[in-house]
Design a protein that fits this description.
- The protein is mainly α.
- It has 2 helices and no strands.
- The radius of gyration is 16 Å and the shape is extended.
- It starts with 5 loop residues before the first helix and ends in a 25-residue tail after the last helix.
Length: about 70
């Protein structure tokens, strides 16, 4: 995990507080949502015949400005 530096972290917090915190989330959202967990994410998928979990290795380094 490549954590952001202190300046970027501070900027991200300001963006969250000033722009994003007031937005309504879809009720299905669980990632990075206070009070929701991986269990909440898994619950809708229980009792299904097939559940597929995909982990894309090195996904973000493949994204470039050139597209």
């Amino acid at each position: 995990i490549d954590a952001p530096g202190d300046k970027l972290k501070a900027l991200q917090r300001r963006v969250h507080q000033r722009l994003l915190a007031g937005l309504k989330l879809n009720r299905a959202a669980t990632g990075y949502v206070r009070g929701r967990s991986i269990v909440d994410n898994a619950r809708p998928h229980t009792q299904q015949a097939v559940v597929i979990n995909v982990d894309l290795a090195d996904f973000f380094p493949t994204i470039t400005a050139d597209g």
